[in-house]
Description:
The protein has 16 helices and 8 strands. It is of the alpha/beta class. Strands 1-2-4-3-5-6-7-8 form an 8-stranded mixed β-sheet, sandwiched between helices. Helix 5 crosses helix 6 (179-190) and helix 8 crosses helix 13 (302-308). The longest helix has 17 residues, at 216-232. The chain is globular and about 55 Å long. The relative contact order is 0.14. The mean pLDDT is 96.
Amino acid sequence: MAPTGTPVIQVSDAELDDLRARLRATRRSEPWPVEGWEAGADGAELDRLVAYWASGYDWRTHEAAVNALPSHFADLDGTPVHYLRYDGEHPAALPLLLTHGWPSTFLELVALAERLATPSRHGGAPEDAFTVIVPSLPGFAFSPQRPMLSEAEQTHHLWHRLMHDHLGFQRYAAHGGDLGAGITSRLAEAHPEAVVGIHLLAVAAPADPDPAGLTAEEEAHLASVTAWQAQEGGYLHQQSTRPLTLAPALNDSPAGLLAWIMEKYRAWSDSGGDLSKRFSDDFLLTQVSLYWFTGTISTSFRPYYEYAHDLTRRVRRVDTPTALALFPADLSRPPRSWAERTYNITRYTHMPRGGHFPAHEEPALLAQDITEFLRNHR
């Protein structure tokens, strides 16, 4: 285990100079006669962020901030996993595992983790504290990709070994959205003896539902999912089918990488179309810089490919108490009946604001919902 404060990233001057040179030499795409974000990343906004990344953004400040986080590493039978650990301020703090999604990193969960570990600093009660573990998904940032494609090495199994075997937690709770929601669901399904409750931002679709038995609300939900996939799902299809055709371009061009990621932060957040309402330039560029300097955009695509090719276990039934929090600008908002086909839903919340990245967009709302749900499962 690496001690707290051990540097996890040390970018050389040569690497930093190379990035800036690539940004300054960006070969700009020929503009189309379309406005704004209508056909993808807005050219003017991309140009502005590329210029700032090349000349104004201070990577060294953010590198130091990342290195100051409570990072550790676990070796799980040859699979290294990076994680943050925030010890709860109360001696009876419940262990809580937070799992990020794509195109996120562990960094997106820091504000949420701090609130959950030290609630008294944010107007809460110390007895509501959690000991929070925030791992980096395999192939993201500082966690190398899993060596092979196999059931035994799937991420939910690694997470249980991290929490139970490595850290020694006999009972713990878990939260996740996006990719993290699927991993958290599989974790609870596989290890109900250890997982006392899960808090999700999305749910797995029920296995083989009978179309004749769907409610009108469920039919409307499925229609909205189909419409979303047709309009917004191009990234999903590419990353699921031909990720290694896309990856070299994004790994070679920082401007291309930025465009691929920033467009998702705008489209999936409660930004009203204005990226800056929810994300500062420095936050976005630090997230993209983590992908760039660790060279992990290619490996971050693996969960999509694996799921599409039946290399990931499907969720069948989760009997662990489950909370579902739905944010209005998230990708989908399934009705409670749809979630209950697969999960033991004991809390179902429609949030007043926020999108796909609520740990950053609305950490206070999300922390409160997690805390209230798990108060009876400590």
